[in-house]
Design the sequence.
């Protein structure tokens, strides 16, 4: 499948559409197989003990999976998550960013399925595994002017 | 099963252990069947269009399920989510809080399973459904002095 | 929501459309809140030790959820499971049937979400919890003759 | 991690411990990264139209994940599935076997997590994706005689 939005274009899109979160996340690379995204870990993502919170891990997976879909279909702001399954497997390392490696498994007309492995930067063992289904709205008919 | 932490005690515990999030969440009621918890929706939980974000819904379910477990076993700060499954079913209403109705399904020695339905306050149709497994650390042996 | 297929009609439908499995499963009751279905446990559903196998529990949940959807929309043989999440919580009792209590959470135009609790007959604690999403094919246009 | 049970040993173990299903499944290969297993598709696994049923896909994933765990820890018959999440993405091809490619993501003292992609033999696009958690019973203490 062709990549229609690369990392730079995706980051620009996130900055415009999701200004509240765009400062914390960055798409690093896109490719035919994998998209990688980063959570720039800050105070707000931490739990006592310095570990990244579950909801922050979920948010990173959600963003990476959203972006891997957009990288193939273009800027569809209205795609929404319908299902998510997460396994939290190891405690994230304190003081380092999280990276998501995300793979698109199915891109149908109305549903897309992708999975992500989440790593503490520099570690080889995944912190979490996530799979999600997105519902993609039907394409609006091209209109001649209005 | 006996309730060993009620809503007031749980909210106090959250305020001490999780000061970063305690302002946004509140346990409303505990009981033999259901625990209810509230997300006090603020700007930070919203997506464009005024709808509550997926990660905020996840965070509410996670907190409610954590609290329903603590309500039976007491203040075990180290219980951790190992698995979560979420179905996002409807768009949350804009400008109202979210409520989680949470039920404990299993409380084993090392694993607990619970589920939560999430509602926009005032609506009868659930916004989301979530089930989670928590790993409960083994009780530390009582030591005589050290 | 109105029930358009009751237990008798659903069992008749299963016997015609799914003759390979219809002998093992039976819809017991339908209602505005709950559908209950039974797995008539036989040798083929057992694992060593006399306990019902995981795939048999999955199959019962899948059938009950399929039927709760049909009970509202009528005989749509082509509805298919797109996602399933199961928590296996207790060992089923040996030598007794399994019962599924199933609740429809969302019935959209193209996706339906339902959940089921599975019990060993006579036990109050659930053996398993399951939630599934079904994709419902668009209605075929009414044709005038062919 | 070292492989302590290879494909031949796993198949022998399945034949002894699970004689009811061993004829339908076969571990094909084991390795440091992937285990592959086959469902020898027969009449009993089919739905109308000749497609493999959801419970049969679930059963293949369950068996492959069980075997990838055993390949690292040896013959522990009592390991049990505690959680499963499945995405059914494409209709299996009629008349061909299914293959599971399975990867171990975490092997802890009491919980193991693995994922499997399921393919119709000869196809490159996965039919389904599955992740499961297994609970591993604690090792019985070595006893000197009794």
Sequence:
């Amino acid at each position: 499948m062709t990549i229609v939005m690369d990392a730079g274009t995706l980051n620009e899109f996130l900055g415009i559409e999701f200004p509240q979160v765009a400062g914390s996340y960055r798409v690093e690379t896109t490719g035919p197989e994998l998209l990688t995204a980063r959570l720039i870990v800050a105070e707000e993502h931490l739990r006592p003990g310095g570990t990244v919170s579950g909801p922050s891990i979920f948010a990173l997976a959600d963003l990476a999976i959203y972006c891997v879909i957009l990288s193939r279909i273009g800027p569809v702001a209205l795609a929404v998550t319908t299902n998510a399954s997460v396994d939290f497997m190891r405690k994230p390392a304190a003081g380092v960013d999280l990276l998501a490696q995300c793979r698109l498994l199915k891109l149908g007309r109305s549903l897309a399925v992708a999975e992500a492995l989440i790593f503490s930067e520099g570690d080889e063992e995944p912190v979490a595994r996530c799979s999600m289904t997105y519902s993609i709205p039907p394409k609006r008919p091209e209109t001649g002017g209005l």
